[in-house]
Amino acid sequence: MIDDLVRLLGTAAHDDSLRAVALTGSGEDFCAGADWVATNAENKRPRTGDLVRRIPHTAHRLVELIATIQLPVVCTVRGWAVGLGCNLALAADFTVADTAATFWEPFLQRGFSPDSGATWLLPRLAGVARAKRMLLLGEKVTGADAADWGLIHAAVPADELTDAADELVTRLAAGPTVAIGLAKQALAYGQSATLAQSMNQELSNLELSCRTADFKEGLAAFRERRDPDYKGF
To answer: Does residue 82 sit within a domain?
Structure first.
């Protein structure tokens, strides 16, 4: 599944016809994470260095693609989002969850250290204290609490989840896609840059976005006092 998602997102990144990405689970749960029991069976122990060779191109690549693809990514979570599944949801631009969903980072409870961006994503979204509660203590967080903590965009009752996510995807897909992608890129860059560096990045992005057809449409719509009809280029 991870390889398929990496391939699909890589393809989406170069498809100019796409305006947004929707990510959701196909069953009762969003994602239960990697199957460490199967991959570490007594007759199937990984060789030394196998994780270092493999994970950067699979799980870590997937999280990175979600966070950096220049399309808005909306994630819908129902049921459990565990380990890698939790971090996929946290890496998305917008995550909408069932209020009763469960976000869980069980790495240390299984005897190994966190991966897939947990130690980077959690403190930036919810603060160090709450990150420690989830990682060091293994506390489970409901969808409602995840929204209160700032881990996700919103939590809604289960019967409203699909409509809430679809509405968000539709809204983002109708926006100026190039400018949205550049803004997403600048937000990520700004987390490790100075104010001056961030403003220089904004200036470069402004130069690019002002050359798009959507920029011209935005100005025309403002002059004509109507809603813009962006085309994504």
So the answer is: yes
